[in-house]
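Comment thread on ticket #2218

A.B. wrote:
> Attaching the input chain for the structure job we discussed in standup.
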Amino acid sequence: MFVAHVAGRSMEPKIPDGSLCVFRSNLSTLRGKVLLLEQYEKTGGHRYTVSQYWTSNKIDPCQEGDRKWLHERFTLTPFNPEFPPWDVASDEKVTVIGEFIFVVEGKPSGELGLVN
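C.D. wrote:
> Ran it. Output below, let me know if you need it in another format.
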């Protein structure tokens, strides 16, 4: 298990902006779980996202690129309806870092200096 700050409003109200959260790194299943993921093609704090994982029934036409990175097509769905779901194609370089377990504490008063 590990702890990380989560910045952003996409998972509110379950995970408030700036929350300190606990994640588990050993996962057996992914479907329906809230996950911390890393997008390798982005830089800085924007390469990490927390979202709910759903397997997609859509046929994935993007079976190109580096085969070692290919995965099943899936959809990441935020809890906050202000944010759209993200369909992750099989050629996008994304890895699961951990499963969200619980919020330790919400954002305290004052600035945390987090990367969004």
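A.B. wrote:
> Thanks. Noting for the ticket: The mean pLDDT is 79.
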